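# nightly structure sweep
# worker-07 picked up a monomer target from the shared queue
# config: single-sequence mode, recycle default, output format = C-alpha cells
# input follows
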Amino acid sequence: MAPLARSPYTGKSRRLVIAFDIGTTYSGVSYSILTPGEIPEIFPIPTVIYYDKQGKVCATGIDDLGDFEPDEVENWTKVQWFKMHLRPKSSATSDAADQITPLPPNKTVIDIFVDFMEYLYDCTRKYIQQTFPNQPDFLVSMDRNNAIDFILTHPNGWEGSQQAQMRQAAVRAKLVPDTDAGRARVRFVTEGEASLHLCIQRGLMTPEMERGEGVLIVDAGGGTIDISTYSRNLAAKEKNTFEEIAAAQCFFQGSIYVTNRARCFIENRLNGSKFQDNIKYIVNAFDKQSKLTFRYRPLYVPANSQEKDTNLGMRNGSLRLEKEDVAGFFKPSIDFIVNAIKEQRRTAKKTISTVFLVGGFAASDWLYNQIEISMKSLGVKFFRPDSNVNKAVADGGVSYFIDHSVTARVSKHACGVRCHHQYDFNDQEHRQRSSQVFRDLNGSQRLPNCFDIILPKDTKVSETKEFRRSYHRNSTNRSDFGYLADPILCYKGSSPHPRWTDVDAGSYSTLCNVVDNGQLINTSRYVSNGGYYNIEYDIILAFGLTELAAQYAWKENVFVANKGVEKRFEFFLSDRLYRS
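# output follows
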C-alpha cells in the first residue's frame, strides 16, 4: 500500500516538532515544521560520549577516534549504553544490571542524558539552519514564541519515574525553560507506539489490519525488545485510528545482550593466550560488523592480528566462531520475542494476524529468519519494513505528535493507593488479619496495608476516560489536613487480585504522587459527637495518554447546593505539576 496522505496541519501558528530517540546504541532525530505539506526529516547519530578525567565532554556521537591524537584520548572514558542505567529498578531488570557499561566517576545517568541532549539539539539546530539558509531567524523566532515541541521516545517498560528524569534532563539541557509552560512542551511516546505510527504512515496496512484484526509491533533495539499490539478502530470517524488491545511488554534482550554473550565466549577462549590484548578489538568488530551478517555458517570476526593459532580459531587475521556458538548468542533474544508474541496472541482482545519487526536489531537476517519460521507455524504474516528500520522510532515520534493515531491503551499494571479498609468478619483474609484491627475515630473497625485499586490491570483506557475512587480522612487535629499526599502505587507481581501492600511487597512501586497544597483543609467538617475532623475527596487517574495523570477532586458548597460544586487540584503528571 502507498504511504498514507497526511491531513494539512490545522494549528493557528507555525510550530517546530523535534523527536529525540536516544537509543542504547544509536540515536535518531526527526523534525517537522508544521506547515501544510512538510515531510519529517531524520538523521542517525551513534549514542556514545567520551569524558576526560575531570568529567568534561570531549567527543560525542562518534565511535572511531582515529581523527584524535592517541595521547589525547588515552585518558578519556567511553560511555555507551548509558540509557540502560535509567531502566526501572525491579526484579525483572536485575539481570540486566551486570551487563551494562558502568557510568564514569562523579556522573549520574541524568548528567549524561543532559550532555547528549545538548549535543543532539545542537546538531538539529545546525541541520535545520543549513536546510533553510534563507530563514536565518527561523529557530530564534520559534524559540522566542515557545513554538518548539519535543517528543522523547522511551522503551515500553519506562514509567513515570523515568519520564520525570528525562524531562528534568531536557530542562537542564535547555531544550525548554524551567517553567510549567516550558515543561509542558516535552512529551513522551513509547518506542512501540512510535513504530506503529511510522508503519501506518508508510502505508504498511495488510487486508487483515484493514478489517480490524490485530497487528503486533516488535521493536528490536540495542537494549530492549518492545512488544506492542494494536487494532484498527472500525467505529472511529478517522480511518486510521488504532487502539491497544494487549498490555505492552518490554524485555532486556536487545542486540547488546547478544554482544555480551559473545564477549563472555571470546574471553573464555582467549584469556591467557597471546591474543588476550585483541579481545576488545574482536568484540567491537563482532558488535559493529559481524553480528548482523550471521547466516548460520562459521563467522569470521576481524582480530587485528596476523598470527595464526588453529586451536583457538585464529587464522588470516580473523577469529573463527562456529555457527552453533553464534546461534547460541542469539537464541535467548529470539526465544523471548517468540514467546512474547505467543503471550500477546493469548491475551489480546482480538486475533493477531500481522507482525512487524522494526528497530536496529531487525537488520539481523538471522533474527528475522528465525522469527519468521515461528510465525509461519502460527499462521501469522510477518514483515520487516525497508532498510531504514533503525530510524523508525524518531520518525514515528514526530508522526505521533502530528497524526495521533492511537486513541486507547491497555493498562500494564494495577494502579491504586495504600489505605485502611473497614474490617469485614465474613472475609477470610480479613479474619486472618484480625490482630491488626484498629478502631478509627468514627468508631469503625479498620485494617491497614490495604491496596485499593483505582485502575485495574489489562483495562482498555481511552484518552478521555477517568478512573476514580472516593476516600476520607479523620483527625482530631484539623491542621493535619493542611498538606496531603497520596503515592500512586503500581503492582507488578503475579497475583491477579492484589489486596495487601505487605504481601509481595517488593512488587509495589510508586508511579507518582498526587499532592494537595492546602485546599482540602477548607472542606473539612467537625463531627461534634465524635470530637474529630473529617474530609472527603476522590482520587482520579487518567491513563489514556502516554503519561499517567493523577489528581484530587472534592465538592464545595455541599450544604448550599444539593450536589455541591466539584473542584480539582493541580495534578502531577510523571511527578511534574500541570494545571487542570
